[in-house]
C-alpha cells in the first residue's frame, strides 16, 4: 500500500512537470510580448529592453523553465536593488499585471471556486442520485420515464441558458436572490449561501442530470447481481438492500466520474464564474489570458492539473473503501 | 467522415445488430424525432448556403434599416424584428439576418463537432487497438500517454492554445485542439474491448490459420469493437458541440464575421431580456441538437453495447 | 433579393412599430429611425446630476474590472488617473472640478501656483503649500515628489506616463532610484521647492504636472512593485483594504486638510469599490437602483444591450452621464506599402467608410459621435469637430469605386484589419462598408493586452488598424505629433502613428507650431494642420465614444470630467441622503 502510494505520488509529480513544460512552451511561442504590454502606450527601445531583462524574458526558454522549476522549491528573487521582490517556497512567480505572488493569488481565489464546486456538488449528488435510484427502482414505470426524459433534457441545456433563466426568474422577476457577489463563508454563512445559490443551481442542473442517468444505469446493473437476490432472500429489509448493497456497489463508476468532475471544477468553472462574475480561479485564469499574464496562466494550469491527478488518486484509494473487492 | 449517419455494417457484431437498431427506431417515437432533428441539422450543415439563400440574406450582410441606432441598435419590430424579410428576426446592432446566421452557424458548429469526433475516433481506435492487441511496451507507453492527456485540464488548455494561435485557420485549429484532448476516452474503450476479443476462439483460429496481425486486426478485431465505438461516438458528439460553443463563448472561437452557435450565444446572452428572440434562436438549436444526439446515442448503446464498456 | 418586397416589408415593420410605440406609454416618439433625431443622452452633458451632495455615507462603485495601476508612477489609464489623483494622491497641479469645458482649466494642487518658467520655459520651479501631510501625519516634501519622478524611470515599475523621460535633461539611460542613483535635473533646494530642468522648452509643463508622475511618494513607504497595492495617501481618502479584483475600501484620511485643497470636496465618509462584476448586471442594478444600489455609481460604461433599458425610461435616462471621451478612433492605413501607399486608394477608404454603421456598432448616437476630424472636439474652437472632408456619414461606395478605378484597382482589392476584441462589432461594420466598395477585408481580433504590441509591429501587422488616440491634456501638442509625425515611427513597438505617415511638409509645420509661444495662435495652427493632414488621407476618422455612466438615485454632484476622458469626477461626487446608504 505505502509502496503503491509512493509510486503514484511520483507519477503525480512527473505529470505536473510535463504539464508545466508543455504550458511553458505554448506560451513561449506566443507572439505577444509581456514586456511591451507592461511598458504601456509609449515605450522607448532601451526601456523595453530594461523591462524585458527585469522580467527575465531575455534568457533562453530552457533557462527560464529551469529557473521556474527550481524557483518553486528554493524561492526566487526578482527585480533590481531596493525594488527586488523575494518569494519563498512554493514560488510560482509574480503576476505581470499586479505584482502579486501567483501562489497568493491562487490561495486567495481558491475558496471562491471551492465554495462553488462544493455547494454545487452537494446539490447535484443529492438531486442526481435520488432521481437515478428512484428511476432504477421503478424501472420502466411512468416515474422512470419522466425522470429520464427530464434528465436528458436538462443535460442538453446549455449552461448559459440555465444561468440566464435562473437570473431572470430568481433575481429580475421575483427578487428572491441578490445578484451574486462573493461573500466569504467565514464572514457571513447565510449571505455566502444566498449569493452562491444561483451559480450552484446552474451547475447542479447540468451535473445532476448526468448523475441521474449514470446512477440509474449503475443501480439497475447492481440490483440484478446475484448477491442482491441473496440479500433479499435472506429477508433483509428493502431499504438495507438498496442502500447497503445495491447503492454501494453501484457507487464505483459514479465515484470515478465524481472525482474527475470535482477535480476539474475546483480549478475553476471558467464559464460559470464568468457568467456570474465570481472572483474564482476560473475568472483569474480568463483575466490572465486576456492580459497575457503568463505566470498566472501557468499557475492556474498547474493547479488545475494538480487537482485532476490528485482527484484520480483519491478515487483509486476510495475504491478500496467502497468496493471490498479492490486491494492494493 | 460521417460515422454517425452511414456506419459500415460490422461483420461480427452482425447484421442482426442493425436489424435491432431499426426495430428500436420503429419502437421509440423519441428516437424517430431525434433522428429527424439530426437529419435536419446534418442537411443544414451540408447545404447551408443553399438553405440560407432561401431567406434572401447572406449571413454577413448588414441591414441598417432593421435596427434602431437610437436604442443601442435594437431590432425594429416585435419578436426581435421577425418579418417576411427576416424570418427569425435580426441581430441587434448589425441587422444581420438571424435565419441566415443560424443556418451557417449550424454548418460551422457541426462541422467542427463532426471533424473533431472523426479525429478522436481515428486516433482513439488506432491507439486503443494497438495498445490492446500488441500489449507489452506499446501498451505501457500508450496507456501512460492516455493518463497524461487525461490529466490535462482540457478546457483550460484548449482556451490557452486557441488564444495563442492568432493567424492560424481558427476552424481547423479548433478541430485539432478539441480532438487532441478527446482521444484517450475512445482509446480506453477500444483497448478494453480489444483485450477481451484478442483471445476469443475465432481470433485464435484466424491466427492458427496463418493470418498476419494486420489481417486479424482489420478482419476480426475492428468489426468487434465497432459497436461500442459507434455508440460511444454518438454520445460524444454533443460534448463536442458544447465544447465548440464554450470556446466561441469565451471569445477564442471562430473569427468574425463567421457565425457559429457558440459565438451567437455568447453575443446574445446579454440581450436575453431586451431581445429574447436573438438569444433563443441559437440556444434552442444547440439544445435540440445536443438532445437529439444524446437520445440517439442512448438507443445505439442499448442495442450495440448492452454491457456498457464505457468506464 | 427583391427590392420591392424589401421596401414593403420595411414599411410594414415601421407601421407595426409605430403602432407599438403609440400603445406603450412613456416611449419617446416613434422608432422608425428617421433621419434627424436629438441625441437622447447628450441632455446631461455639462450638467451636474443630483445637485449638491451632503457630507457622509458610503458611496459604492460597481466595477467590472480591477484598476490597472494605482501606483502614481505607473498610473496612465484615464479613468484610473481620475480615481487616483482625485482620492488618493495630490499632484503639483490639477484640473478644476467642474463639468463641461471648464474642466480643462488648471488649478494649483500641491503647489502654490501653476509653476514659474525661466530660461525660456526650459526650467520650471514649483513651491509647495505649507502644512501638507500624508495619512500618517508626516509632511509632504519636495524630495518625495522627486522620488516618484525618479521611480517612473524604473524598469520594475513600467506603464506610467513618459513625459518626465521625454523632457527632463540628462535622463538618458536612467534606471530609477533602486540602485541609489538620482536625477540631477530635478533639484530640491529645500523641502518645499522643486525645480525641473528640461532639455528643450516646454511651455505646457503645468499640464504635464497634472499627471500622477508628479505626486509624492515617501521613500520610506516605497515597496517597489507592491506599492501598487497600497499607495500611501496624500489625498482625502486612504486605503483601508484592497483585495485585488474583489473589493477596495477607502476611508477618510484625517490628516488631509480641506483648507489646502480647492478641488476635492470629499463628501462620502467611505468609498467601496466592488470589482469584477458582470457589466450588464451592473447596468441592471443601477437601472433598478434598489435599496443598496441607490448610492452606487458605475465604473464601467453602459453596455450596448442595456442602452434601450435606459433611454426608454425618462427617470433612468436622467441618471446617465455621457461626457465625450475626447478620443478619436480612426481607421489607420499603412501608408508605407501597397496598396495604401496610393493616395487614391486611401481616399477610396475614406469615402467608403460608413460612419453611421460604426456609430451604431459602438452603441448608437446616444453614446458615440461620428468623427469628422482627427483631433477630438475638445481641441477645436467651439468644442466641436469640423466636418473637414464633407463625406456623407453613411459613406459613398460609388465614389469610392470611382477612386479605386482611378488608382487602377477597378477590380477592388483584398486587405486585412486588426481590431481590439472589444471593438469587434466596429470591425464588422468597417468590413461591411468597405466590402460595398470592392475592398474585401479580413478581420483579426486581438486581446486588449496584445493589441498595441500587435499593431506596433510595423512589418508584420495588417494594412488596416482601427484605433484611437486621446490627448493627455487639452492641447494639439499631445495629439497631432503623436499620431502623424513620421520621425516617431519605430519598426517594433510603434505607437500613435499607425498610418506610418511620413510627410515632410507636415513635420516641418509641426515643428513650427511647437515653437510658437502664443497659445491661441498655436491652437489655430493645429486645427488648420488637422484638415491638411486629412486631405492627404493617412487615416479615415471613425467615431468618438462617450463615457456612458449610470449613477444611482441617491447620488449627487456627479458629472463626467472632460480632462479624464469623461470619467466621473470623484472629487465632487457624493450622496443626497447619506443615511440611506449601506455601511
TrEMBL record, chain A:
It is found in: Cell membrane. It is a multi-pass membrane protein. PROSITE patterns: ABC_TM1. It comes from the Bacteria. Keywords: Cell membrane, Membrane, Transmembrane, Transmembrane helix, Transport. Residues 110-319 form the ABC transmembrane type-1 domain. Its main location: membrane. Pfam families: BPD_transp_1, BPD_transp_1_N. SUPFAM superfamilies: MetI-like. The chain crosses the membrane at residues 9-30, 114-137, 149-171, 191-212, 254-276, 296-322. Belongs to the binding-protein-dependent transport system permease family. This is ABC transporter permease. It comes from Streptomyces hydrogenans.
Automatic annotation (TrEMBL), chain C:
Transmembrane segments: none annotated. Residues 1-22 form the signal peptide. PANTHER family: ABC TRANSPORTER SUBSTRATE-BINDING PROTEIN, PERIPLASMIC BINDING COMPONENT OF ABC TRANSPORTER. Residues 25-50 are annotated as: Disordered. Keywords: Signal. This is ABC transporter substrate-binding protein. SUPFAM superfamilies: Periplasmic binding protein-like II (SSF53850). It comes from the Bacteria. InterPro entries: Peptide/Ni-bd (IPR030678), SBP_5 (IPR039424), SBP_5_dom (IPR000914).
Amino acid at each position: 500500500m505505502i509502496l503503491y502510494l509512493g509510486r503514484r505520488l511520483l507519477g503525480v509529480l512527473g505529470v505536473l512537470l510535463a504539464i508545466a513544460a508543455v504550458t511553458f512552451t505554448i506560451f513561449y511561442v506566443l507572439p505577444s510580448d509581456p514586456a511591451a504590454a507592461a511598458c504601456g502606450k509609449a515605450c522607448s527601445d532601451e526601456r523595453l529592453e530594461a523591462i524585458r531583462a527585469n522580467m527575465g524574458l531575455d534568457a533562453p526558454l530552457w533557462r527560464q523553465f529551469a529557473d521556474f522549476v527550481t524557483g518553486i522549491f528554493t524561492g526566487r528573487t526578482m527585480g533590481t536593488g531596493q525594488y527586488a521582490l523575494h518569494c519563498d517556497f512554493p514560488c510560482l512567480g509574480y503576476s505581470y499585471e499586479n505584482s502579486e505572488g501567483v501562489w497568493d493569488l491562487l490561495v486567495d481565489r481558491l475558496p471562491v471556486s471551492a465554495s462553488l464546486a462544493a455547494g454545487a456538488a452537494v446539490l447535484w449528488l443529492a438531486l442526481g442520485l435520488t432521481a437515478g435510484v428512484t428511476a432504477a427502482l421503478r424501472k420502466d414505470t411512468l416515474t422512470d420515464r419522466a425522470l429520464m426524459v427530464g434528465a436528458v433534457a436538462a443535460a442538453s441545456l446549455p449552461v448559459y441558458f440555465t444561468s440566464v433563466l435562473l437570473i431572470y426568474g430568481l433575481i429580475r422577476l421575483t427578487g428572491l436572490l441578490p445578484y451574486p457577489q462573493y461573500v466569504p463563508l467565514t464572514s457571513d454563512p447565510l449571505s455566502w449561501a444566498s449569493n452562491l445559490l444561483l451559480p450552484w443551481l446552474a451547475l447542479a442542473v447540468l451535473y445532476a442530470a448526468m448523475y441521474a442517468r449514470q446512477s440509474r444505469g449503475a443501480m439497475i446493473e447492481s440490483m440484478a447481481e446475484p448477491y442482491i437476490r441473496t440479500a433479499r432472500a435472506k429477508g433483509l429489509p428493502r431499504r438495507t438492500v438498496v442502500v447497503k448493497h445495491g447503492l454501494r456497489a453501484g457507487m464505483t463508476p459514479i465515484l470515478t466520474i465524481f472525482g474527475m468532475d470535482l477535480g476539474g471544477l475546483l480549478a475553476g468553472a471558467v464559464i460559470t464564474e464568468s457568467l456570474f462574475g465570481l472572483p474564482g480561479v476560473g475568472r483569474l485564469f480568463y483575466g490572465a489570458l486576456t492580459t497575457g499574464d503568463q505566470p498566472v496562466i501557468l499557475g492556474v494550469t498547474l493547479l488545475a492539473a494538480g487537482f485532476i491527478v490528485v482527484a484520480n488518486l483519491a478515487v483509486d484509494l476510495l475504491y478500496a473503501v467502497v468496493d471490498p473487492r479492490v486491494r492494493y | 467522415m460521417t460515422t454517425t449517419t452511414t456506419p459500415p455494417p460490422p461483420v461480427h457484431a452482425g447484421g442482426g445488430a442493425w436489424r435491432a437498431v431499426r426495430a428500436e427506431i420503429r419502437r421509440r417515437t423519441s428516437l424517430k424525432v431525434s433522428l429527424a432533428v439530426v437529419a435536419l441539422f446534418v442537411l443544414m450543415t451540408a447545404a447551408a448556403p443553399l438553405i440560407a439563400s432561401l431567406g434572401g440574406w447572406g449571413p454577413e450582410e448588414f441591414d441598417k434599416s432593421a435596427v434602431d441606432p437610437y436604442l443601442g441598435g435594437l431590432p425594429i419590430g416585435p419578436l426581435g424584428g421577425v418579418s417576411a424579410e427576416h424570418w427569425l428576426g435580426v441581430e441587434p446592432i448589425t441587422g444581420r439576418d438571424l435565419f441566415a446566421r443560424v443556418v451557417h452557424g449550424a454548418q460551422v458548429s457541426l462541422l467542427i463537432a463532426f471533424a473533431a469526433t472523426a479525429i478522436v475516433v481515428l486516433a482513439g481506435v488506432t491507439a486503443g487497438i494497438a495498445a490492446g492487441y500488441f500489449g507489452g511496451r506499446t501498451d505501457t507507453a500508450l496507456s501512460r500517454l492516455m493518463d497524461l492527456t487525461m490529466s490535462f485540464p482540457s478546457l483550460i488548455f484548449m482556451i490557452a492554445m486557441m488564444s495563442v494561435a492568432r493567424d492560424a485557420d481558427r476552424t481547423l485549429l479548433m478541430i485539432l485542439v478539441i480532438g487532441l484532448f478527446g482521444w484517450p476516452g475512445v482509446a480506453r474503450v477500444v483497448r478494453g474491448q480489444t483485450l477481451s476479443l484478442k483471445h476469443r476462439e475465432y481470433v485464435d483460429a484466424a491466427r492458427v490459420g496463418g493470418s498476419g496481425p494486420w489481417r486479424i486486426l482489420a478482419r476480426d478485431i475492428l468489426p468487434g469493437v465497432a459497436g461500442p465505438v459507434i455508440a460511444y461516438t454518438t454520445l460524444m458528439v454533443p460534448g463536442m458541440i458544447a465544447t465548440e460553443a464554450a470556446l466561441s463563448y469565451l471569445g477564442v472561437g471562430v473569427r468574425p464575421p463567421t457565425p457559429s452557435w457558440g459565438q451567437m450565444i455568447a453575443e446574445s446572452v446579454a440581450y436575453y431580456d431586451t431581445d429574447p428572440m436573438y438569444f433563443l434562436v441559437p440556444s434552442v438549436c444547440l439544445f435540440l441538437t445536443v438532445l437529439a444526439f444524446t437520445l440517439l446515442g442512448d438507443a445505439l448503446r442499448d442495442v450495440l453495447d448492452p454491457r456498457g464498456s464505457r468506464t | 433579393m427583391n427590392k420591392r418586397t424589401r421596401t414593403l416589408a420595411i414599411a410594414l415593420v415601421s407601421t407595426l412599430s409605430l403602432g407599438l410605440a403609440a400603445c406603450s406609454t412613456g416611449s419617446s416618439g416613434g422608432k422608425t429611425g428617421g433621419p434627424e433625431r436629438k441625441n437622447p443622452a447628450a441632455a446631461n452633458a455639462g450638467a451636474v446630476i443630483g445637485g449638491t451632495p451632503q457630507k457622509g455615507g458610503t458611496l459604492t462603485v460597481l466595477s467590472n474590472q480591477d484598476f490597472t495601476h494605482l501606483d502614481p508612477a505607473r498610473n496612465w489609464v484615464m479613468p484610473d488617473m481620475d480615481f487616483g489623483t482625485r482620492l488618493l494622491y495630490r499632484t503639483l497641479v490639477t484640473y478644476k472640478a467642474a463639468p463641461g469645458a471648464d474642466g480643462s482649466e488648471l488649478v494649483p494642487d500641491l503647489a502654490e501656483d501653476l509653476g514659474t518658467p525661466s530660461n525660456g520655459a526650459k526650467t520650471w520651479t514649483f513651491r509647495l503649500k505649507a502644512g501638507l501631510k500624508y495619512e500618517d501625519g508626516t509632511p509632504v516634501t519636495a524630495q518625495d515628489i522627486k522620488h516618484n519622478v525618479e521611480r517612473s524611470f524604473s524598469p520594475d515599475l513600467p506603464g506610467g506616463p513618459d513625459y518626465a523621460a521625454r523632457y527632463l535633461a540628462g535622463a538618458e539611460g536612467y534606471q530609477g532610484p533602486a540602485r541609489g542613483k538620482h536625477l540631477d535635473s530635478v533639484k530640491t533646494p529645500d523641502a518645499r521647492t522643486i525645480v525641473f530642468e528640461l532639455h528643450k522648452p516646454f511651455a505646457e509643463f503645468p499640464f504635464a504636472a497634472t499627471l500622477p508622475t508628479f505626486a509624492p511618494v515617501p521613500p520610506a513607504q516605497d515597496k517597489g512593485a507592491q506599492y501598487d497595492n497600497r499607495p500611501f495617501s496624500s489625498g482625502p481618502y486612504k486605503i483601508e483594504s484592497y483585495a485585488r479584483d474583489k473589493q477596495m475600501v477607502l476611508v477618510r484620511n484625517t490628516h488631509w486638510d480641506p483648507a489646502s485643497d480647492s478641488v476635492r470636496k470629499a463628501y462620502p465618509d467611505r468609498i467601496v469599490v466592488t470589482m469584477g462584476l458582470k457589466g450588464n448586471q451592473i447596468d441592471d442594478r443601477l437601472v433598478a437602483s434598489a435599496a443598496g444600489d441607490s448610492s452606487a455609481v458605475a465604473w464601467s460604461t453602459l453596455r450596448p444591450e442595456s442602452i434601450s433599458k435606459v433611454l426608454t425610461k425618462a427617470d433612468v435616462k436622467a441618471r446617465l452621464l455621457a461626457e465625450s471621451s475626447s478620443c478619436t478612433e480612426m481607421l489607420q492605413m499603412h501608408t508605407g506599402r501597397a496598396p495604401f501607399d496610393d493616395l487614391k486608394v486611401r481616399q477610396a477608404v475614406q469615402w467608403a467608410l460608413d460612419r453611421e454603421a460604426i456609430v451604431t456598432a459602438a452603441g448608437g448616437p446616444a453614446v458615440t459621435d461620428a468623427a469628422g476630424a482627427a483631433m477630438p472636439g475638445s481641441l477645436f474652437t467651439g468644442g466641436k469637430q469640423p466636418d473637414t472632408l464633407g463625406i456623407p456619414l453613411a459613406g459613398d461606395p460609388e465614389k469610392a469605386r470611382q477612386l479605386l478605378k482611378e488608382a487602377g484597382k477597378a477590380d477592388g482589392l483584398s486587405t486585412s484589419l486588426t481590431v481590439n476584441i472589444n471593438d469587434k462589432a466596429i470591425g464588422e461594420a468597417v468590413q461591411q462598408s468597405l466590402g460595398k466598395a470592392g475592398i474585401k477585408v479580413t478581420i483579426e481580433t486581438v486581446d486588449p493586452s496584445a493589441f498595441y504590441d500587435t499593431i506596433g509591429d510595423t512589418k508584420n501587422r495588417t494594412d488596416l488598424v482601427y484605433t484611437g488616440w486621446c490627448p493627455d491634456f487639452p492641447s494639439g501638442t499631445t495629439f497631432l505629433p503623436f499620431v502623424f509625425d513620421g520621425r516617431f515611427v519605430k519598426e517594433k513597438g510603434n505607437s500613435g502613428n499607425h498610418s506610418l505617415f511620413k510627410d515632410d511638409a507636415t513635420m516641418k509645420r509641426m515643428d513650427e507650431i511647437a515653437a510658437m509661444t502664443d497659445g491661441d495662435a498655436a491652437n489655430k495652427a493645429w486645427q488648420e494642420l488637422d484638415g491638411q493632414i486629412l486631405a492627404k488621407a493617412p487615416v479615415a476618422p471613425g467615431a468618438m465614444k462617450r463615457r456612458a455612466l449610470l449613477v444611482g438615485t441617491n447620488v449627487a454632484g456627479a458629472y463626467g470630467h472632460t480632462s479624464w476622458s469623461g470619467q466621473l469626477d470623484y472629487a465632487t461626487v457624493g450622496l443626497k441622503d447619506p443615511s440611506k446608504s449601506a455601511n
